[in-house]
Design goal:
Blueprint: H1 3-14, E1 18-23, H2 25-29, E2 43-45, E3 48-50, H3 52-55, H4 58-63, H5 65-81, H6 86-98, E4 102-106, H7 112-116, E5 123-125, E6 128-135, E7 144-145, H8 161-166, E8 176-180, H9 189-192, H10 194-201, E9 204-210, H11 217-228, E10 232-237, H12 242-249, E11 253-256, H13 259-281, H14 287-292, H15 300-306
Parallel strand pairs: 1-4, 1-9, 4-5, 9-10, 10-11
Antiparallel strand pairs: 2-3, 6-7, 6-8
Helix pairs in contact: 1-13, 6-13, 10-11
Bound molecules: zinc ion (ZN).
Length: 310
């Protein structure tokens, strides 16, 4: 690893600042999940072939709910067959190390971060998760997990009667819809943690951007906020992208390589930095006790003040 990068990582870990990770399709591609914006996402309805960016819209769903659901159940099958990789697992370790200093913002709807063990509280799924659905008419806004018996589809396979009834809203009996952000919809806080993501960005000291090229709005805003506040950006991707240039222009880094190889190395360095911090600030405490707390606490009165309610 580059020595300047290593020094930057150790410094952030030894401080008190926030560490945010933003992931995109690249980390899922390493688990065998295609982007669905490419050839895998094309879908035939009647005699017409639709582009993924036409399929993934509210207006398409309103017109052809069965076909849009069949497309999502095909994608669901692909996601169910995929497994989390070393990149996903490295981020689980990172969350356990830094707890409240850590946030994961993901554009991926495949749910692999949660399946790997990242917590729903600290994982902002800003484009949703296809393992959940909600009422298409918004009669209620809570999320309903996709039942296990709803099976993934092959391309062109229609819905069964069982699918149709499982995909109904349990409250009003109308269609449920996949819990994803469609191209003709806008971000919001309730479902996609829009405001929270921007707030976190404004307080981030280290942003790791993993496998995303910055094609969508919120990830761009997150990266720019960190850049403008002088945070360090490390972009990890198999090829250069607009985020690599932003990272380097702000004194950060671009690491060319797969997430499953690069992330475990970065997490190891951050872990070492965390240990240094414990040594520097808490000579009297056992490393185990210290590691279990994510707050820098120097005396008992401060413990009282900073303790979170249970
Ligand atoms: Zn409903």
């Amino acid at each position: 690893m580059d020595s300047v990068l290593k020094k930057n990582l150790l410094e952030v870990a030894a401080g008190q600042g926030r560490i945010t990770v933003m992931t995109g399709a690249g980390i899922s591609a390493e688990s065998g999940i295609p982007t669905f914006r490419g050839p895998e996402g094309y879908w035939t309805v009647g005699s017409k072939e639709y582009h993924p960016q036409e399929m993934a819209t509210y207006s398409m769903f309103r017109q052809y709910p069965e076909q849009v659901w069949a497309w999502y159940l095909y994608r669901l099958g692909v996601c169910r067959r995929a497994y989390a990789n070393e990149g996903h697992r490295a981020l689980v370790r990172l969350e356990k190390l830094f707890v409240e200093r850590f946030t994961l913002i993901t554009q991926n709807v495949d749910g692999l971060h949660l399946r790997a063990g990242s917590s729903p509280e600290r994982t902002f799924q800003i484009h949703g998760n296809i393992f959940f659905m909600r009422c298409a008419d918004g009669c209620r806004t809570d999320l309903v997990p996709m039942p296990d018996f709803v099976e993934g589809k092959e391309k062109g396979e229609p819905l069964t009667e069982g699918d149709r009834s499982a995909l109904r809203c349990p409250a009003c009996g109308g269609w449920s819809r996949p819990h994803v952000l469609w191209f003709d919809e806008t971000y919001n806080e309730e479902h996609f943690r829009f405001v929270s993501s921007l707030k976190i960005a404004s307080a981030t000291d280290l942003l790791l951007i993993v496998g995303t090229s910055g094609a969508t709005n919120l990830p761009n805003q997150v990266a720019w906020r960190v850049h403008e506040r002088g945070g360090t950006i490390v972009d990890i991707n198999i090829e250069q992208d607009p985020f690599s240039r932003l990272a380097v222009s702000g004194g950060g880094h671009f690491i060319q390589g797969p997430a499953a190889k690069v992330l475990p190395e970065i997490v190891d360095v951050l872990k070492a930095g965390m240990r240094n911090r414990i040594k520097v600030h808490r000579p009297g405490e056992s490393s185990c006790q210290a590691r279990n707390s994510n707050l820098e606490i120097r005396n008992k009165s401060e413990i009282q003040m900073t303790k979170r309610p249970k």
